[in-house]
Design brief:
Elements lengths: L23 H24 L11 H10 L4 H4 L3 H27 L5 H25 L9 H8 L1 H12 L11
Helix pairs in contact: 1-4, 4-5, 5-7
Length: 177
């Protein structure tokens, strides 16, 4: 009886598409570059305990005051758990945004799984916890300005979900979307 070797299956390596062949990735590059900046401006300050309850000549402090004073009482006077949420954005998401933008430009496929984890986390935290509190929570945390609140915060739920769809399968840069 002769033993025959099983056929060896070799997967053909699929090359990554160039960035110009993945035009939708430019959208992500712009969005997550902006998210990097907003994490630095808005989420770092409450994480460090900076008071922005009054207008200030400091651009960063005044930007947070302008947004929160008539829109986001939870952000204006954050309880400990909300400072944990902003710290997550400032110290975990912000470095991830930098890596994501570089990965999108260079076509680093390893970013797929971290992107799925990130998109799931931020959509859950922002979509359920923050929106739930701001719209249906205790009266002192409910937003008095839902339109402005949604304009500033809904992108942090919607765009990560679109990223999740983009990164739904391994080797995301071998396909257009």
């Amino acid at each position: 009886m002769s033993a025959t070797a099983a056929p060896v299956v070799v997967e053909a390596s699929v090359p990554n598409l160039r960035l110009r062949e993945r035009p939708f990735d430019w959208f992500f590059i712009v969005v997550f570059s902006l998210f990097t900046i907003t994490s630095l401006i808005s989420d770092l300050l409450p994480s460090l305990g900076v008071d922005f309850s009054e207008p200030s000549p400091n651009f960063f402090v005044n930007s947070n005051w302008w947004y929160a004073h008539d829109t986001d009482p939870l952000f204006m006077d954050p309880p400990v758990w909300m400072r944990i949420v902003t710290s997550l954005s400032a110290f975990v998401y912000m470095p991830f945004y930098v890596l994501l933008v570089i990965s999108l430009v260079r076509g680093w496929n390893w970013i797929q799984l971290p992107s799925v984890i990130y998109a799931t986390m931020i959509s859950t935290i922002t979509g359920i916890i923050v929106f739930g509190v701001e719209f249906f929570g205790e009266p002192e945390w409910v937003t008095p300005n839902p339109v402005k609140f949604l304009a500033f915060n809904l992108p942090y739920v919607l765009f990560p979900i679109v990223l999740l769809v983009r990164m739904r399968k391994p080797l995301p840069f071998t396909r257009r979307f």
